[in-house]
Amino acid sequence: MHSLVTQLYFARSEFKRCLAGVSAEDAVQRLQPMNCLSWIVGHLANQEHWLWVQLAQQKMIAPGLNELVGYGQPASTPPWDEMWSVWETVTETADEFLITLQAERTTEFLAFQGNPHWESIGTSLHRNMFHYWFHIGEAHAIRQQLGHIDLPQFVGDLSNVKF
Q1: What is the CATH number of the domain that holds 118?
Q2: Which tens digits make up the pLDDT trace of 93-116?
Q3: 94, 119, 133, 150: which is deepest, by most CB within 10 A?
Q4: Is residue 112 part of a domain?
Q5: Which three-class secondary structure string do you get for the chain?
């Protein structure tokens, strides 16, 4: 597996670790100007859907997701369980592409409506993983504001990750 994909998988696992134990009630509380935790889950699913499902595989498996949680859309408080279900479905489908990715393809550009995407596959992988880390930090801040205690500290166990 390509090392960038391994890093994305680690970012995903840290995202899940960050949000473990959040209740459905807390997940939809919006502490303005931030979005709520359920929105963050859907938002990251939306990015993976765009990059690794729509662009890479020409599939549409989450219609309406972009309108609900996409960049620039009005704030929303989607149901927690629904957003995790969408995230799991999207990331499983994204993995159909990601697990096949070879190093030489990272400099290629996926196409949308016959035009090359503005970033290479490798740059998009970086953007995707950095996007996770950005929202992990935001999610920690939201959880602290909600009064959650015993939050994960620092970055998790890297000892079994093979970069």
Answers
A1: 1.20.120
A2: 999 999 999 999 999 999 988 999
A3: 94
A4: yes
A5: CCHHHHHHHHHHHHHHHHHCCCCHHHHCCCCCCCCCHHHHHHHHHHHHHHHHHHHHHCCCCCCCHHHHHCCCCCCCCCCHHHHHHHHHHHHHHHHHHHCCCCHHHHHCCCEECCEECCCCHHHHHHHHHHHHHHHHHHHHHHHHHCCCCCCCCCCCCCCCCCC
